[in-house]
Amino acid sequence: QNEQFIPALVYRTGPYAPNGIPFANGVADYWTLLNERDGGINGVKIVFEECETGYATDKGVECYERLKGKGPTGAAYFSPLSTGITFALTDKVPGDKIPLLTMGYGRSESRNGAVFPWNFIAVGSYWTAADVAIQHIAKELGGFDKLKGKKISLVYHDSPYGKEPIAALEARAKLNGFDFKAIPVTHPGVEQKSQWLAIRQDRPDYVLLWGWGVMNSTSIKEAAAVGFPREKVIGVWWSGAEPDVTPAGEQSAGYKALMLQHGPGKFAVHADLEKNVVSKGKAAAKEDFAQVLYNRGLINSMIGTEAIRTAMKKYGNKPMTGEQVRWGFENLNLTAARIKELGFEGMLQPLRFSCEDHQGADVARMQQWDGKAWKTISDYYKADDSILAPLVKENAAKYATEKKITARDCSKES
Amino acid sequence: MIAFGQFLEVLVSGLLAGVLYSLVALGFVLIFKASGVFNFAQGAMVLLAGLALVRSLDFMVAKGLPFWAAIVIALLFAAVVMAITAWMVERFVLGPLINQDGLTLFMSTIGVTFMIEGGAQMLFGSDVYPLRLFPSDAWFLFEGSFPGGILVSKIDVWGGLIAAVLVVGLALFFQKTKTGRALRAVADDHAAAQSVGISLNWIWFIVWLVAGLVALVAATVWGTKLGVQFSITFLALKALPVLIIGGFTSVPGAIVGGLIVGAGEKLAEAYLGPFIGGGIEYWFAYVLALVVLMARPQGLFGERIIERI
Amino acid sequence: MSSAAAPLASGISEKAVPEKSLLSVNNIEVIYNSVILVLKGVSLDVPAGGIVALLGANGAGKSTTLKAISNLLRAERGDVTKGKILFESNEVQNLSPNELVRRGCIQVMEGRHCFGHLTIEENLMTGAFTRTDGKAAVMRDLDLVYGYFPKLKQRRNSQAGYTSGGEQQMCAVGRALMSRPKMILLDEPSMGLAPQIVEEIFEIVKHLNEKEQVSFLLAEQNTNMALRYARYGYILENGRVVMDGDAKSLSENEDVKEFYLGISDGRRKSFREGKHYRRRKRWLA
Amino acid sequence: MFYRETGQFKTSYAADMQIFPIRQDRIALWVLLAVAFIGIPLLNAFHIWPFGNEYMLRAILIPFLILSLAAIGLNILTGYCGQLSLGSGAFMAIGAYSAYKFGTGVHIPFGLFDLSIPPLPMLPSILLGALMSAVVGILFGIPSLRIKGLYLAVATLAAQFFFDWVFIRVKWFTNYNSSGSVSAPDLNFFGFVVNAPIERYLLCLIFVAIFALLAKNLVRGNIGRQWMATRDMDIAAELMGIRPLYAKLSAFAISSFIMGVAGALWAFVYLGAWEPLAFSIDRSFQILFMVIIGGLGSILGSFLGAAFILVLPILLDQVPHALGVPISVETVSLLVFIVTGALICWLLIVEPRGFARLWSTGKEKLRLWPYPY
Amino acid sequence: MRAPDGPPVTAGDVLLSIDNVSLSFGGVKAVSGVSFDIRKGEIRAIIGPNGAGKTSMLNIINGFYHPQEGVITFKGEARARMRPHDAADGGIARTFQNVALFRGMTALDNIMAGRTLKMRRNMFWQMLRIGPALAEEVEHRHRVEEIIDFLKIQEIRRTPVSRLPYGLQKRVELGRALAMEPELLLLDEPMAGMNIEEKEDMSRFILDVNDHYGTTIALIEHDMGVVMDLSDRVVVLDHGIKIADGTPNEVKSNQAVIDAYLGVAH
Ligand SMILES: Nc1ncnc2c1ncn2[C@@H]1O[C@H](COP(=O)(O)OP(=O)(O)OP(=O)(O)O)[C@@H](O)[C@H]1O
Ligand SMILES: Nc1ncnc2c1ncn2[C@@H]1O[C@H](COP(=O)(O)OP(=O)(O)OP(=O)(O)O)[C@@H](O)[C@H]1O
Ligand SMILES: [Mg+2]
Ligand SMILES: [Mg+2]
Questions:
Q1: Domain E1-91+183-266 adopts which CATH fold?
Q2: What is this structure's pTM?
């Protein structure tokens, strides 16, 4: 069979469904596009199957076990879109030899490909995000020196996901001399009155928001209720999509969020999608077409399929095994030209993985919700590696000792 | 003065937040008091009511109806949906389970929860749907005395008013009417209630209907606060400590419990949280409930647990 | 009310088959949990205005029979698998219990079953749940019940769960009276009551029967009392009716005397004289 | 016809007090154990359906065994001792995190002297972890002396939410990992590292078999009768000399010990890496469902309930796919919700006492067969 | 109002004495200023109209209710307050007016549960159920089987008690109390809801327990026939007050008793 099987862990029901649905749609539609337009990847048809996780780790593991062996060569890669599932699978994928594509989420230290050969935290980690957010604040204030003595609070989802950025922010706080305060919100985040009252009294200069699902819109509403200026609230890229702002209505106007490089809106690839997928009635998307999370789903699929394509260059145009796809990821080089060719120009900067670097890029932009639409308001910031690299190194080393992993020597790999 | 202003602000917002929990807790109380069933499905019913309301409202507005007319029709539609639910629950689940013990009935309401959650999302979608029925900005009171004033959310005040009206109405209903008495009888002993000619089927339909309508009211308030979406079902967990503190069987208890829980958890989060790490609201409410129970095992206003031999 | 379908059994037996039966049970079979067969064909008749006693040892199936009639069986996972039950000549085995109460047939369950959290007075008032004849009439009957059981009046505001066993029993009987029934199924009304009160309860039964034309089917262990007040009796053993007859002939039957009245050789035996675990002689079923 | 106890005479009370007094039952049990311990490894070794891949072991049998164990734990508390608890998740979490700490080395600076325990081997880690769970279980069991029924159930939620919070907030438990998520150390049992799915399966099976037997012994012994007496009528039990303090707290201790073991296995063997959400309130409810659906007060029921609650949704999820019906995952998972809910209700209507009772009624019928009663 | 104690009917010391005991619930005076004693080896009946405080009296004796006033002396030891299981430890067992069996257990387990206090093996041994633990279990099973034989309930050993008819439940309950090998057995209306034949059986059991084991029995019963025939001495309560105390015959002809309780002379 000339079929490449790719599993999709999704959550289209449950508390995080409003955010899970557009992402899953984007993921699926891009694969459909490849099949419809190109007949797959280099003639190998993509077959995919969704499995509902409901954002629950144990369901995610079950889905993983169910799908990992499907298709002629097994699953090409997994993308769980959940930090919890990512953590659980990180331990399993080396045994099953399947790469894990966690674009913009998951373990920040898994950027270190020597210790995490199977994890690809493509495009950006939470530490990237945290660093870029501070850079943007500095720019708004007029320079890094202005950060000194300022107060920045982090309102976060009380889970590994929400806690990831704290390390990077603390490092930044030490460096730039601002007061940093972390304020947890219990899952799922429907009640945040006391947190925002504290903010009202504390009057921080900025609030960073690390929420997911209902927590985001609730935060924005509470910010509005306590009169905290929305312009001073900066969300991570998982807090910067349409479902996060629409429930709060006009109260969201002014709210800012990071972009995982891309925003909403139609680009070249969307024209292809409309022509080959939407018009044929094969689209999963409905009104979420070209929304933020939908576009992110597209990019997620694109990076995955490009990795497969890269692998095929080495192993031939046939279905790839997980191990081969891993090689493909590690040697993936998405140049600006290639990105343009794929129709993603404007959504993504060049991206290049290597043995040491499983993140491939560390730039991000800022967008702002004007009450009706997201508007890009900044140019690309590059995360400061002098701060993040030691963090990655330290944490990866810790993981390696804990798990008794001997790190690969990347200098020896071709 | 600032400190006192802050304290007052946290207290007031806590009290009001608590009353909003009470709105959900009331639904539990109703069904427990009237049938001895701990209705796990109350959170799901709020979701269902909210979805039915917001989806039909959106539909009607899209059709070009004036907003007020759309609201009236949508409320009616949601009420009908709740009535149908009540009827089905009675007919297919509780009816056949007459005379079973509390745990079995509790478990069956969990089955009902699954069905409602699945059905509601299948019929009305699992996205987030904004609802705007109440103003969601705030008043700032006593700005003269406290810098920045005391913040009071308007929607919380609305919620509080509605809850108060509901409580008075329901309390009168239970204590003063023949049906109210019958409901309490059913809660004590199904078989005996049947033997004196109380129709359990009818009673259960009525009480689930009323609980459904209370859920609809809760959905209007909470839907405005959160947007109508699956997470609304988690309110049930916030309502539980309210329920225990007030006592499962007391309608006014639901309000008092709400006030205590709301004020307690917000004050704890504000004044204790910073020292031990924050995010303590959830368990604090439950620990508060535990402490109250140690003093009064049936909650503050619950009926005495009869221990005789 | 249709009196058209008169029982056709007239003349089949010498026993005084009442010409107008209010309740008739025809050969019913009851199974619990779909495995335990308890009633194996029980038939009985209660004439309008009659008092009929249902006697039998523990576990013979008296309560089961009553519950089958009042349709409370289903709630205990029991089922009437065969036979018919007619009340006022209408089949009732598929009615809901409350419909039956509405039609005038109410059961006083064995083991009290008061509503523990309701006060005595509220308990009594629930008995009037199905009535539609106005508050005044209900209040009159409440006074009547208090008249029968002054002890209840004393305790009217106590929660029933905290009253003594006997008080609860009175409450249960009083509650049934509140529905103004045509027929009462009384399950062990005398259990746990002081002799004086037992006497009173049976007097009340008699009074209601004579003055208000209420019919009774009593399941009773106190055979002595039951046969004194009933006109007709059935004896149930092991889920079957083994003997029936009018009260007088039953109480003169030697076996009944021995086993149910504790009289042998013409005198009451002392309980001290009980032989060691007599093997019971049983009627052939 | 063939299921009869007639002709099987017991000559001693010891024989009469076996777990399965009827010979046919005993044979069935041995067959089952043989299948579990020998048959499945064999099938797996030769990749015979349904063990063609690891899915059956990893995604179904292992979680099934572990959750059955947890259900046994809760069944002791709720089914046998009548103390309704919604805190199972917390006790599993305590087992998991304590075992993790013991497995990776405990270090508590006490000022004057430091308490330092070097990393312990797996077995003692798990057992000590479970012991911690038992201790906390006793602590949170104390309110049960005063609080009853549903009130107690909701009070146990205090434990649930408190420990959810503790394991998120207290970094010590997660060895100061920045994200607060931890991953299990090697499953090293006396030098043998358990790794392959079949080894993991056997490990769980051994734990489950042993604890199920111990639990069964307890519940049919004196302490078990004390628990049941307390459950059925606590006042009368006390009047007969059963100390509620001892009966209830021992139930809490044993139950949380077993749940602690289950928690450690869940974390170490099934998940590998976990965060507190793995032991959230949802887990508590899941286990409670298992116990109620399986049958309160029945060890066998714990297994049946676990199978139903865990496996049914997984199977339902795959039905449309297997049949080739094109339905979106969203619809499927909502349908799974609805069908699971409906089946729960249906089952309760058929038999409110759960599978265990259904099972024994079935046996009763079999004994009477071919007569209906 | 205190009736003079009759001449000693049964030889024996005072096992239990109640001295001026009062108990009230809120406004309800369940027992007020009652004194009487129970002698070793006798059958002592407590009678009185409904709500007179008989059950409350038993509840006081075995520590379930704590009287506001008065002293209870059991086996020479005065005590004001004790926990129910201490009473059980001391050798007081009872049956209940509304059958209080452990409904989810079989008859056998119910009676075995009565042996709890006599069983010594700790949880660890029970868990393993080998050696001494098994031996203990078997030994107690023997004792319980004796009781089962004695009460003639062999057939229902393995039946869950909730399925038993009322009369048999009462018998199992008696068995459970007997399993405790009590010195003082409190029976609260053991024959309510039984027919004559069953009452005769039950009477036989009570007498046998009294004869064979020398167990002292306090008996509440509304059937005057039973009371008259079985008991050695009778105490009569009304409205929480003792109105008579004496031999059955004395009590039977006491006018106060007739007025308050019997209605007609028996
Ligand atoms: N819910 C039940 N499930 C199974 N068996 C039952 C159930 N209820 C009653 N039985 C059985 O049915 C038989 C008849 O019981 P029933 O209660 O009708 O007897 P009864 O004549 O009223 O006895 P008693 O005088 O003791 O009240 C008994 O053997 C009893 O074990
Ligand atoms: N826990 C309690 N709370 C309130 N009142 C109580 C309580 N226990 C008993 N009483 C009251 O005390 C009085 C005596 O009750 P008790 O049960 O002792 O009566 P009794 O003599 O056993 O009557 P019966 O023969 O009807 O069983 C009754 O009026 C009862 O309502
Ligand atoms: Mg009966
Ligand atoms: Mg009494």
A1: Rossmann fold (3.40.50)
A2: 0.91
